[in-house]
Amino acid sequence: MSDHSALLAPAATELLRVAAAVPSLDAHTGCADYDVRGLLDHLLYWGPRLAAAGRRESSAAPESDVALVEDDWPALLEKQTEELVAAFASASAWTGTVTFGPAELPAAVVGDMVLGEFVLHGWDLARASGTTLSCSDDAAAAVLASAVAMGERARSTGVYGAEVPVPVTAPLLDRALGASGRDPYA
What we know:
mainly alpha, Four Helix Bundle (Hemerythrin (Met), subunit A), globular, MDMPI_metal-binding, DinB/YfiT-like
């Protein structure tokens, strides 16, 4: 894992663009477990915990019956993505270990989780809005590497679904989606 801080701001901007285009909070996303409202609740719940880890602060709480999406969700999501980008903006935020929930993790792993949240859930929201996610090859390659590295563990804990076979000749984003349990061709 390495410092992917330069990839975060463009990915966050794209997440916000596709989120603003969703037609309904009840629309189906590319993430099997969530409609738009559920996915936004997930993002709004975990974002502050990821940002706290990036700032080397502790923040732990179980996810259960979280309902954070209100009328002001676009502003909340924008503020949160800004905080996440800021928390992981410096190279030092990607070094050493951080506390994330009950675990100590490499800071770069948590930073890559943030990038993955932006890209993978950005794609999920793009599916709900009928738009296309714009993602640089560098960001897609970083998300692919992270998805492959975390794959088995993420699948065993239900974070990822079963890997979707995608040809090695497919675009990097499609391969990252497949590694995370999403079917880029569905």
